[in-house]
Amino acid sequence: MYTKLHAVARQVGDIIVGKDQQIRLALTCLLAGGHLLVEDVPGVGKTTLAHALAISLGLRFNRIQFTSDLLPADVNGISIYEREKNGFVFHPGPIFTQVLLADEINRATPKTQSGLLEAMEERQVSADGVTRALPEPFFVIATQNPTHQIGTFPLPESQLDRFLMCLSLGYPDAAAERALLMGEDRRVLLKALQPAMAPAELAEAQQALWAVILPTQAQSNSELWSWTWADGAYRMQAFGPGAATADESNAVQLWSTVYLAVRPPLAAGTMSA
Q1: Along the chain (273 residues), what's the average pLDDT of each consecutive run of 10 residues?
Q2: What is the pTM of this model?
Q3: Long-range contacts made by residues 115-120, C-beta under 8 angstroms, separation at least 24?
Q4: So what's the pLDDT on residue 159?
């Protein structure tokens, strides 16, 4: 699992140059079963990040460009009368996918934004009295323009609560900008990408994460934990008042399963938190 996660992070890093930390955080958000909000100015690679992640993980990808005239039915789907069947037939909207890019989500009205609430929380869509499950995994990457720009509708707290993380990509540094200018078009590189991790392996990693229980001592913040890279994985050891049990020491693989799992190994020494 660790090897595959490293491969996904490296592959996406070849497309989104100089943004290794943001890529690791996006993977962490996906593994934890959350949704990601990216707030930044246009043109820094938000859409490319979402597309590269979907391809590298072998997941279906859809993009919705949010505008002020977009309606909830345009996102979730609509029932249309078909004369041949003498009845209404539901046509699923673009939300029925595994990775959904909600591009410039705060350009849409609150009515349309609220259409995502049920899908993001319950992983389902209700229309015409019928509830339809969304594919698994279901991961929303929403981008929004800075709120001071004209034509934006700030996300309400109920919508912000659906996102596990909010991050910013920012402009590339000089070295990354030079690599982008001298390298191939990112759109050409995206077409050549191949999955580095199967959806079944991603589901297995997510299930392994949910089986992790944070020790009581760590929850009370009374311990100092140290991560050490060994045998292809991070190991954690507790220091401070009280001794951690063997079960607790084994259980505290939370960060090594998510964020630290996609970090490159440490050259030497330990990390403390």
Answers
A1: 82 87 89 89 85 91 92 90 88 93 89 87 88 92 78 79 88 83 80 87 84 58 48 47 44 43 40 37
A2: 0.75
A3: 115/72, 115/75, 115/76, 116/75, 116/140, 116/159, 116/162, 117/158, 117/159, 117/162, 119/76, 119/95, 120/35, 120/162
A4: 82
23 closest CA partner among 62, 53, 47, 43? 53
At 213, list the tokens. Answer: 């229980």
For residue 147, the model assigns a pLDDT of 65
Contact 162, 35 (CB under 8 A): yes
Short-list 258, 257, 255, CA closest to 273:
255
- Please tell me the distance from the alpha carbon of residue 88 to that of residue 191, in angstroms, as a whole number: 38
What is the residue-wise DSSP string for 131-164?
Answer: EEEPPSS-EEEEEE--TTSTT--PPPHHHHTT-S
CA distance 196 to 187: 18
Give whole-number Cα distances, 18 to 172, 202, 258, 265, in Å. Answer: 7, 25, 20, 18
User: Which tokens hold the place of 103?
Assistant: 């591009």
CA angle 271, 272, 273 (to 5 degrees): 130
For residue 248 the two structure tokens come to: 């607790």
Residue pointed to by tokens 């009205």: 109
Q: Are 193 and 230 in contact (CB under 8 A)?
A: no
User: What pLDDT does residue 214 have?
Assistant: 58
Per DSSP bridges, beta strands 165-167 and 224-230 are unpaired
**pLDDT at residue 150, rounded to an integer:** 65
Identify the burial level of 239 via C-beta atoms within 10 angstroms of its C-beta, where 0-12 means exposed, 13-18 middle and 19 or more buried. exposed
Q: Given phi > 0 = left and psi -120 to 50 = alpha, else beta, which region is 21?
A: alpha
Q: What are phi and psi of 103, to 5 degrees?
A: -80, 130
Q: What letter represents residue 226's amino acid?
A: S
